[in-house]
Structure to design on (282 residues):
């Protein structure tokens, strides 16, 4: 996860109470970290919301992975926001979301995006990880947990 | 990750006593397996995985998808995402049940689709 999550853009306590607000807040956090120009924000938010309109990225277990592709990025980037109250996300299991992993990838690099999805899905199967992450109250605590959590990729084809 | 319920084709070992002529069948099961190359230019990302799982769920047969030694329950889109299958990946669709033949045909069609967003079959 440390390979694609941007430390400075982590959000330990989202203010947002709706899906769109959460996506806007997380994209703004990536923009503040220097990955987008202010003028690009509406484009990125719009693309992610358009993708959500095709089917929710709420994968269940209180996790969602909103995402889009965007030209001009050096590589896949992502951030993670925690919602204390939970946010309705039309998830596959119907439950509110507490962990939102937002990914923005280069259009010409599907591989890193696929591996990021795999990593998030696998780590989301761990009750221990979900509980530990939800207990984090600062960016530093989140980042330390991310560093302590090895990517659960299979070793056969990475 | 879900382990294969049956040995993958590539992992089946020939018994020492076996010759080319008397190798035992892989399984007594009537499961049908179809090899297919993933043609989605973006790989098996979230939308085609969801489309596959939704279509697979309409069949009575148990559905598995193999990528080498790795296996996924074809009716679970998160399970499919754990394959991280990129474009051009060789996959095997396995269906085991009364509608296995039709399931394999329809599901292989989804994986073979070149539509980036994937498509959900309406043929069943």
């Amino acid at each position: 996860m440390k390979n694609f999550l941007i430390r400075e853009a982590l959000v330990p306590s989202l203010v947002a109470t709706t899906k769109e607000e959460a996506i806007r807040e997380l994209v703004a956090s990536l923009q503040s970290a220097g990955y987008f120009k202010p003028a690009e924000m509406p484009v990125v938010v719009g693309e992610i919301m358009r993708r959500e309109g095709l089917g929710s990225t709420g994968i269940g277990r209180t996790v969602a992975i909103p995402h889009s592709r965007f030209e001009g990025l050096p590589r896949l980037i992502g951030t993670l926001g925690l919602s204390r109250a939970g946010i309705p996300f039309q998830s596959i299991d119907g439950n509110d979301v507490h962990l939102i992993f937002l990914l923005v990838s280069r259009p010409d690099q599907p591989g890193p995006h696929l591996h990021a999805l795999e990593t998030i899905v696998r780590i989301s199967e761990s009750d221990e990880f979900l509980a530990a992450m939800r207990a984090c109250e600062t960016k530093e605590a989140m980042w330390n947990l991310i560093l302590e959590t090895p990517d659960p990729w299979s070793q056969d084809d990475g | 990750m879900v382990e294969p319920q049956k040995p993958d084709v590539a992992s089946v070992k020939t018994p020492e006593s076996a010759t080319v002529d008397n190798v035992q069948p892989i399984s007594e099961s009537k499961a049908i397996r179809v090899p297919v190359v993933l043609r989605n230019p973006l790989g098996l990302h979230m939308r085609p995985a969801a489309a596959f799982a939704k279509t697979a769920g309409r069949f009575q047969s148990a559905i598995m998808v193999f990528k080498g030694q790795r296996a996924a329950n074809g009716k679970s889109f998160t399970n499919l995402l754990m394959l991280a299958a990129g474009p051009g990946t060789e996959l095997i669709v396995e269906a085991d049940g009364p509608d296995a033949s039709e399931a394999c045909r329809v599901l292989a069609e989804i994986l073979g689709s070149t539509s980036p967003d994937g498509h959900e079959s309406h043929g069943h």
User: Anything to note?
Assistant: The longest helix of chain B spans residues 100-111. The beta strands of chain B are 32-37, 62-67, 70-73, 90-96. Chain B has three helices and four strands. Chain B touches chain A through 22 residues (CB under 8 Å).
